[in-house]
Design brief:
five-stranded antiparallel beta sheet, alpha+beta, four-stranded antiparallel beta sheet
């Protein structure tokens, strides 16, 4: 039902911006060369950024694609922060300005089948002139389970690189989210 996969860009930000992003420009997180791509990007950006994409699909229909590439740390931090606030307060929204993308999650309380209204917004970022907004209602448990599983995989990947970056902050967020369930 819900598929979430993280990809690491084979190119740096300048190359991605100039040429646009397509599937072959990315490596799945668990692919043999992904660590090399991640370390190369960290080296080129003085340890600041790793670019890639988080592809989220519902019944094999993509909500986010490679066009939404960005700093993967920021993508994961924004997803986890949104989910944490949603579970804690009933509403979570987290956006970041580099690519004018945000995730919004609203908790819908039902007897035994809580759901999350998940909205993805993408505005004009100069190189992408299309505004897109997609909203889907998802079973809370399935969405939380999927985000935590892939988020944990990304944290493990990030820890394996030359600089672990914000992996400890992501781990704390994952632990907080687990405590709400």
């Amino acid at each position: 039902m819900i598929t979430i996969q993280t990809y690491i860009s084979k190119k740096d930000c300048k190359e991605m911006t100039l040429s646009g992003a397509i599937y072959r420009d990315f490596s799945q997180l668990d692919a043999p060369l992904s660590k090399e791509y991640g370390n190369n990007q960290l080296k080129k950006s003085d340890g600041i950024s790793i670019y890639g994409a988080v592809e989220i699909s519902i019944y094999q229909k993509p909500l986010s694609t490679f066009n939404e590439w960005d700093d993967v740390d920021e993508l994961w931090l924004s997803l986890l922060e949104s989910l944490k606030h949603c579970l804690k307060y009933g509403h979570g929204i987290s956006g970041f300005s580099r690519r004018t993308l945000d995730w919004e999650m609203k908790l819908i309380k039902e007897d035994k089948n809580d759901s999350i209204l998940f909205t993805w917004n993408h505005w004009d970022a100069g190189w992408n002139t299309v505004y897109e907004m997609i909203t889907v209602c998802l079973p809370k448990n399935k969405l939380v389970e999927s985000l935590l599983a892939e988020g944990s995989l990304y944290v493990d990947f990030r820890k394996s690189l030359s600089d672990s970056g914000p992996s400890s902050k992501m781990e704390r967020l994952i632990d907080e989210i687990k405590s709400f369930n």
